[in-house]
TrEMBL record:
It comes from Almyronema epifaneia S1. This is Cyclic nucleotide-binding domain-containing protein. The lineage of its organism: Bacteria, Bacillati, Cyanobacteriota, Cyanophyceae, Nodosilineales. The chain crosses the membrane at residues 6-26, 33-52, 64-85, 345-367, 373-391, 403-422. Residues 122-237 form the Cyclic nucleotide-binding domain. InterPro entries: cNMP-bd_CS (IPR018488), cNMP-bd_dom (IPR000595), cNMP-bd_dom_sf (IPR018490), Env_Response_Regulators (IPR050397), RmlC-like_jellyroll (IPR014710). SUPFAM superfamilies: cAMP-binding domain-like. CDD domains: CAP_ED. Keywords: Membrane, Transmembrane, Transmembrane helix. It holds the Pfam family cNMP_binding. Gene3D superfamilies: Jelly Rolls.
């Protein structure tokens, strides 16, 4: 089976650059500009390959509809499968997917906390950015009925936001007031620096959020709105008024959306790496391998499908080989920063190379028995998946690292791809 054997060799050769990129990313830390440049160049060569090695031949043989259907199917399949793989821990393989995962993690955590504290009136005086600053400082507490939360005469070291339950405000032996969900206590001692003026006891089982004095003082410095909001609440309490102004559900919903929209991964790099390291401990190596393979299956499949056409497969082979280097380099750097061992990274790339060769062989076997229309549709599906990979991973990552400088690297890669495809022009 000379064609099938040729497809296997081309699949292994095209994917072998994954191991080269993996070695570079594992044992060498390239500059951001260099990484961006080669990533953009690889993106350009693949864009050229999609346009002239996949789209043009399919269009000439089978028309536009197989392209339309195939690209839609390929893009949808790739996005859906990668999304699932990332959920299982495969996000570690790319810095961009790692950052995206951290972003979604923070957004989910913020949403969960907002669900519990959005009825706390004072928080609506904060801007979305200030809410993002205060949310990580809140410590959840669950207490049983009868728990002493604040002791009269003790230094004020924290304030509390009530999520559920009821608190009793007691001075001496006298019950002064009852506080329920959406209210807060303990802020007076923090604002004035004086001792607690009353004791607070949980009248029922309660869930609260605690903000300690150190974080509270830092928040007051950054947020004049928080200080003015607390002053209004204190004035209201001094007038012995317990009635609060409730916002409409519609307004609360708008405020909540604004807070969620302002979520950013603004953690210092060491904290980001620590979070990724913790997440990677629960990551299945199989998820990383499958995710890496999914990134390369479409390219390998096209190599197999076109193995019988020397001119076409050789130009596409070069594009695949070049583009795999920056992809593997970036992925290896991201996995290394997340704490993945060098041996594990290289093992994953060796597995990806072998499996890519197998996929090219299967593509060749399909081309020997399928009709032209089926082959055209298979190539279009692969092209859509490759384009989805470029749009979601390589190109955004290149621009993030190199900014506008990646423009010329992308153009260079695209033109080199054309030159290889049409050497006689």
């Amino acid at each position: 089976m000379p064609v099938a054997f040729n497809a296997l060799l081309q699949g292994l050769l095209g994917a072998s650059s994954l191991l080269i990129g993996g070695l570079l990313g594992t044992y060498w830390q390239p500059s951001r500009v260099f990484s961006a440049a080669i990533m953009a160049f690889g993106s350009g060569t693949l864009l050229s390959a999609i346009a002239f090695d996949i789209s043009l031949p399919v269009y000439q043989v089978s028309g536009f509809w197989p392209l339309l259907v195939g690209f839609l199917i390929g893009g949808t399949l790739f996005t859906s499968i990668i999304s699932y793989i990332d959920q299982q821990g495969g996000f570690i393989r790319h810095p961009s997917s790692s950052r995206r995962f951290l972003y979604h993690q923070r957004q989910e955590e913020t949403s969960e906390i907002l669900d519990r504290i959005s009825h706390v009136e004072i928080l609506h005086t904060l801007s979305p950015a200030e809410m993002q600053a205060i949310i990580p400082l809140l410590k959840p507490l669950s207490v049983e009925a009868g728990t002493l939360l604040c002791q009269e005469g003790a230094p004020g070291d924290a304030l509390f936001l009530i999520v559920t339950g009821e608190a009793q405000i007691i001075k001496g032996q006298q019950l002064l007031a009852l506080l329920g969900p959406g209210e807060m206590f303990g802020e007076m001692a923090l604002l004035t620096g004086e001792e607690r003026s009353a004791s607070v006891v949980a009248g029922t089982p309660m869930e609260l959020y605690e903000l300690d004095k150190v974080d509270f003082d830092a928040m007051l410095e950054r947020s004049p709105q928080l200080a003015s909001g607390l002053s209004r609440i204190l004035a209201r309490r001094l007038r012995d008024t317990t009635q609060t102004t409730l916002r409409s559900l519609e307004t609360d919903g708008a405020w909540r959306r604004q807070v969620l929209d302002s979520v950013e991964i603004d953690l210092p790099l060491p904290e980001q790496q620590a979070m990724l390291l913790q997440l990677s401990k629960n990551t299945a190596p199989l998820a990383i391998l499958v995710g890496t393979l999914i990134d390369n299956i479409p390219e390998s499949a096209v190599l197999g499908l076109t193995a019988g056409s020397y001119d076409m497969s050789s130009s596409f082979l070069m594009a695949v080989f070049i583009s795999n280097i920056p992809e593997a380099l970036s992925s290896s750097t991201g996995m290394r920063q997340a704490g993945t061992s060098a041996s594990r990274i290289l093992t994953l790339w060796v597995g990806a190379v072998l499996l890519s060769g197998l996929m090219a062989l299967l593509g060749s076997l399909l081309s020997s028995v399928a009709s032209n229309l089926v082959i055209a549709l298979a190539q279009s599906i692969a092209g859509g998946a490759i384009l989805a990979m470029l749009a979601s991973t390589m190109m955004p990552e290149a621009y993030e690292l190199g900014g506008g400088s990646v423009t010329f690297s992308t153009i260079a890669g695209f033109l080199v791809g054309i030159w290889v495809t049409f050497p006689s022009l």
